[in-house]
Amino acid sequence: MKWITARRRHPLAGYVVVILALALFGVGYAALAPTSEEARAQTLSAEAPAPDDVDIAEGRAIFDQTCASCHGLDGSGSPTGPDLREVGSAAVNFQVSTGRMPSMDPDNQMPRKPMVMSEEELADLIAYYDAEIRDDGAGADVPYEVPGNEPQREDFEDEGEYDAALETYEAEYDAYLEGADDTDMGMKLYLTNCAHCHAWSGGGGALTDGRWAPEIDDASPREIYEAMVSGPGAMPMFSDGVIDPDEKQELISYVKTLQAEPDAGGVFALDRVGQVAEGFIGWTVGLSLIVACAIWITAKQRAHD
Amino acid sequence: MSKTTQAPNALRGVGNYIDDRFHLAKTGEKNLRKVFPNHWSFMLGEIALYSFIILLISGVFLTFWFKPSMVEIVYDGSYERLQGVPMSEAFASTLHIDFDVRGGFLMRQIHHWAALIFVAALVIHMLRVFFTGAFRKPREINWLIGVAIFALAMVEGLFGYSLPDDLPSGMGVRILQGVMLAIPLVGTYISMFLFGGEFPGDDIITRLYVLHVLLIPALLLALIVAHFMILWHQKHTQYPGLGRNDKTVVGTPMFPAFAVKAGGFFFFTFAVTAGLSAFIQVNPIHLFGPFAPTSITSGLQPDWYMGFMEGSLRIFPNWLDFTIPIGAGYPIMTAVLVPGLVIPGLIFGALALWPFVEQWITGDKRAHNIADRPRNAPVRTGLGVAGIIFYGVLWMAGANDVLSETFSIDLYLTTYIFRVMAIAGPILGFIITKRICLGLQRRDRETLEHGYESGVIQQLPSGEFIEVHKESSDETVEVLSSKRDPSSTALTDEDVDASGVENPDARKGMGKFRRKLAHWYTKDNVSVQGLEPHSGHHLHHSQEHLSEEGGDVER
After folding, report:
1. Domain ranges (residues) in chain A
2. Nearest 5 degrees, angle CA A162-CA A164-CA A168?
3. How is domain B48-241+250-310 classified at the architecture level of CATH?
4. Which of A110, A208, B145, B236 could form a disulfide with A100 if both were Cys (CB 3.0 to 4.6 A apart)?
């Protein structure tokens, strides 16, 4: 103690204390902060929720409140909502996680929106659906092995947990996309089966009778997978028998990689709309500027009239 | 000339050397002093010329690396995403230009943007010539050459678009083949001949390449040169004004003023093209990926100048298809044949024939070097606007899926809207335009008669308020009073002559028809013939009062 007492008024003492304190907090935080393993267990991103983690009673409450008015208390459907007993949990996860269900207007196609419930509530709902409503094994299961949505900051208590969860998610996401190595197959599958509605860029397109194929930029790989196995709305179903899971991985990898691809041709990519936008710019910017220049260089003082 | 404008000795030496051998001084002097009228609308053709030069230069650059071959190879260039993908050599070499050739990507985009601007400039140049009546005698042949350049430019663009063998290229070629197949009797043969077998075959890229870099550019170049030589010989048209008549051109001499302007204008055109190419991605073939016959995508269109054909294909109904009952039945696909060939044929045919039709209606065989003001030929202007609307509706219809998605309109509804608009739009456009023209004529007459509104309000002794009109400038008076009334020789001959004999022309079908057209062409007009400028009531009125009061008469 004498050693400290002798030096505690040293001009550098204050700095030493601050540095020591920072070091202590830093090392201590690193020791106590959840590891990525733990974070993974928390986000449930890649695995089906364990039976203990879900609350079927809670799921029933959610179903009765938000779904039953159209789909019926037993999920058997009504004039305003289809029978859910054979759609499978993939369809439930797709419709709810993309915010399309619960629908505000059952007569119209629903656009993508933020999900109205939490991930936890959705897990409860799916557990209730699997246990009580679904005809055994009918339809497709939620493909938990395919990366879902990115973890959201507000679902985590602190920055560290969130960063760890994000890192895990990104690792899984990259692993899933990189697990596909046959660009040609992915491209052929996408351009043969998907692009005539969703467009080559995934930007979506118009369909018959006022419907449209949504853009799939925001869709997670899991949602794309679920859309294929459940065939929502006007979309045909591409079951695992038609396009097997490996091919689906190639396809999803192709379109997600394409969407993430930077636009090498210039900072303005015109939203990848293509020739219509190019023609528009060619006339409105290109030719207009040149004509403006022609007006400028031939301008002269004119007699007043 | 003062001594200071003497050319330096060195230059004079060179000049004399050349002149001693080729005797160019006189011709050169004459041509360098050639006068160009000063108006921005006379520069529109130059935009097309400069874009064409940019196209030639950038195109030559691209040919150094482009391989027009459909041999399938596995890509292993520097664009990582497509490594290992089988594709044609044409597509792979285009990727090579984009990612491995220094400046290649920029040059390809310059080539593409220049093409879009080239055809757009042709269109606005043609519209200027049409609306000012600059196609009239003696310039009908040059108009025809212009129409040919326009048609060839479209085909040239379509073929160039097809060369990289990317997804939209292949789809474009497929539509082209579909239209060929719809031609009765010979369609299949034409398609088999062009493709060297079934679609897509192994030859089409090579063949389109030769057409794109050799045949069509040579034709275009020849036609453009002819266009210019005729222009040079016939001289420019000019707008009416002081000192301008069918014999005298007023403007800037070729050298130095106009040459400097034109040279600067080339650089500006190039700068805009290069600027677009540097910042705005065009036709990203590396994102589209290579074409495969199984591939198809929504949201892709041809380049804008083919858009009207795409649109006519999209909105034309299929109710009119029929089958000729010979043998197993021979189907006639009017739903492809009419929009794919007949409608473009009508548009180009109408463009080519109009100068002769107009001449036939009016019987006007005089040479015209003064441009018409569009309002002074209301029927022609109305027809031009009707044509623009018809073309524009088809053009928009070619983007119906993009419009439907962007503005959340039912896709089927857009088809019905465009069908109605394609027919009603031109009719309405004609009527409204003609009315606007006549309104403007009326205003012109009023300006000529009364001068212009000065904005000065005066109170007369009687308490009446008047706005003082001032006399227009001599230039304005000249422009307004130079208006000629539309006339036709068909209407000058009486139907029945003095001796009561019926005019044979007026009785026969064609003659009768011509008289009807001539009447329709000339009937609505606000004449200024015999009108004394500034003879109007307002002007005199105010002047008289001002004089009486001893105030200053204006000017």
Report:
1. 2-32, 40-260, 274-305
2. 115
3. Up-down Bundle (1.20)
4. A110
